[in-house]
Amino acid sequence: MTVTDARPAPVRAFAAVSLLVALLGALLLSGPASPAHADDSGVIAARLNEARAGSGLGPLTRNGGLDAVAVQWAAQMAASGSLSHNPAVGGQIPGGWSRWGENVAQGQSSGSAMHDGWWGSAGHQANMLGAFTDVGIAFLRAGGTTWGVQVFANYGGGGGGAQASPATRNAAAAETARVAEASRVAEVARVAEEARVAEAARVVEVERVRAEEVATAQAAEVVRVDLTRQAMAEQAATLVVAQEQADRASAEEARAAAEKREPALEVAAASAWSDIGPGGNGAGAALVVLASAFVLGGLAMLVPGIRNRVIAVVRGRGTAKVIQVTKR
Q1: Residue 103: which of 71, 149, 50 has the closest Cα?
Q2: What are phi and psi of 278, to 5 degrees?
Q3: What are 271-280's pLDDT values in tens digits?
Q4: Angle between helices 166-275 and 64-80 (to 10 degrees)
Q5: Residue ranges in the chain modelled with pLDDT below 50
Q6: Which pLDDT does position 296 carry in this prediction?
Q7: Which DSSP letter does residue 291 get?
Q8: C-beta neighbour count of 163 within 10 angstroms
C-alpha cells in the first residue's frame, strides 16, 4: 500500500506521538505473546536489499523511527490476533516524507520465509521495489504464530528523514527485546491460568463423582433397610400362623384324649351305682358313690359331653334305686 500525506508537519508529529502512546498502552495490556526475533528482521532487511539490487535498484536504509512504528504495529496485531494494515502510519513515522508504504504478514516460520511470501505477491513486491529511501522492519512470534511488518518511506535525499544511526538501531533492538520479554511473561501467565482453570475443573469433577457415589450408597442403604423390615414382618407373620396351628393341634389332641376317657368314666359311674343295690355295702358304698359323684362332677366341669352323660346315668340309676327303696 502506497499513499502520500499533505498534512502539516506539526499535525503529523502530534498524531504520531498520540498513536504511539496508545499503542504502547495496548501493548502493555495485551494478551500473551512469545519472544520476537531481531535476527529475523535483519534477514528480511538483507534479502530486501538483495532483491532490489537484483532489480537494479539501490538499497534502502534501515530507519530507527520506521522500525519503532513497525514493531508497535506488529505487537498490536499480535494483541488483537488479526492481520491488518496500520491506518495511521503517516502520522506515526518521522516527518518530511513524500510517500510511504507498508507490508504486513502473518504465519511464516522465519524472516526468510516471510520475505518469500511478500516477494511472491505483486502488490507487496511493488512496495519492496518502490521509490523509497528508508525501511523499518519488525518480526514477532506471538500467540503460536508470527507477525511481520515492513514500513517504507521516501525522504528525498535525506531531507527530514531520520536515518538509522547506531544509537537508534540499538534503541529499536532494545524495544524489540522489551516487547519480547513482556510477551514471554504474558505467555507464562496464560499457561498458569490455563493450568489453574484445568485444576479447578478437575476438582469440581472429583466432587461431582464423589457426591454421586454417596447418593448411590445412601439409596442402596435405604433399599436394604426396607427389605430387611419386610423380611422381618414376613417372618413374624409366619411365626404367628405356626403358633395358631400348634394351638389348634394341641386343642384337638386334648379333645381326642378326653373322648377316649369318656366311656371308662361312664362304666365306673355305672359300677358305682350298682354297688348301692340290695346287696350293696351300705355306708361304704354310699361313700364310694358320693366320691365318684364328686370326681365325675369335676370332670363334667371340664368336658361337657361327659357331664351330660354322667347326669343321665345318675338320674337313671338314682330313680331305680329310689323306687326299690320305696318298695321296702
Answers
A1: 149
A2: -60, -35
A3: 655 655 555 5
A4: 10
A5: 3-11, 13-17, 19-37, 158-164, 319-328
A6: 56
A7: H
A8: 15
* Beta bridge partner(s), residue 141: 146
| Nearest-angstrom CA–CA distance, 143 and 134 | 30
pTM: 0.43
Give backbone dihedrals phi and psi of 100, rounded to 5 degrees, phi first.
-145, 165
Return d(Cα 75, Cα 38) in angstroms, integer.
14
| CA–CA gap between residue 160 and residue 99 (Å, rounded) | 13
Q: How far is CA 29 from the centre of its chain?
A: 32
**Residues with Cβ < 8 Å from 239, sequence gap 6 or more?**
none
Residue type at 257 in one-letter notation: A
CA distance 70 to 76: 10
Over residues 284-328, the pLDDT tens digits come to 555 655 666 666 556 555 555 655 665 565 566 554 444 444 444
Single-letter amino acid, residue 151:
V
In the three-class reduction of DSSP (H, G, I as helix; E, B as strand; rest coil), residue 36 is classed as coil
Q: Which three-class secondary structure state does DSSP give residue 138?
A: strand
